[in-house]
Amino acid sequence: xxxxxxxxxxxxxxxxxxxxxxxxxxxxxxxxxxxxxxxxxxxxxxxxxxxxxxxxxxxxxxxxxxxxxxxxxxxxxxxxxxxxxxxxxxxxxxxxxxxxxxxxxxxxxxxxxxx
Amino acid sequence: xxxxxxxxxxxxxxxxxxxxxxxxxxxxxxxxxxxxxxxxxxxxxxxxxxxxxxxxxxxxxxxxxxxxxxxxxxxxxxxxxxxxxxxxxxxxxxxxxxxxxxxxxxxxxxxxxxxx
Lengths: 115, 116
What we know:
The complex is a heterodimer.
Chain A: E1 4-7, E2 10-13, E3 18-25, E4 31-37, E5 44-50, E6 53-57, E7 64-70, E8 73-79, E9 87-94, E10 105-106, E11 110-114
Parallel strand pairs in A: 2-11
Antiparallel strand pairs in A: 1-3, 3-8, 4-5, 4-9, 5-6, 7-8, 9-10, 9-11
Chain B: E1 3-7, E2 10-14, E3 19-26, E4 31-38, E5 44-50, E6 56-58, E7 64-68, E8 73-78, E9 87-95, E10 105-106, E11 110-115
Parallel strand pairs in B: 2-11
Antiparallel strand pairs in B: 1-3, 3-8, 4-5, 4-9, 6-7, 7-8, 9-10, 9-11
């Protein structure tokens, strides 16, 4: 099973709302990632968790707050977003500590629209 | 630092024709290279990866890529295109170096269109 699941598939929120994106994997992977992808662009790395600890934050605004409650679950909490934050948010996981030869397995993404 | 350049943001081929998607990399250390495919409204799926073993790498769905150090290239090919190959293709590079460990650097992507 090489599946990463993400919920919800679509999310529409106002700029004053608080919402959360969820990502789950049951492959025993210990590295998990959040990416943001705008239309017709490559994914941009946001956060990396390694063994449930935040190891990389790519200078993401504080209105995005990641959380890794356990090795299978990754959340992205959203608050006071801007319309320019509308994008496809992708979660990925890889086997152990992030190393360069490991394959990252991607989920289908959450399509976020901020009004 | 590592980076990749994908030549051609759009490639169109007829069904049954050769598919060639170009990727050139820049890396100051031995690179590891990946090709991912993204179908509409989906996440990314790994097609193949080069991790310094064989220079000719075979992947899923009949795709393959050849690592050419002298040309700093990792072009993706498929002998005969199928309608189902229509998608966005991303080349990515990473390398074993300090703080960039495990970080994928993506190219801008190539949209492949397959005509019947």
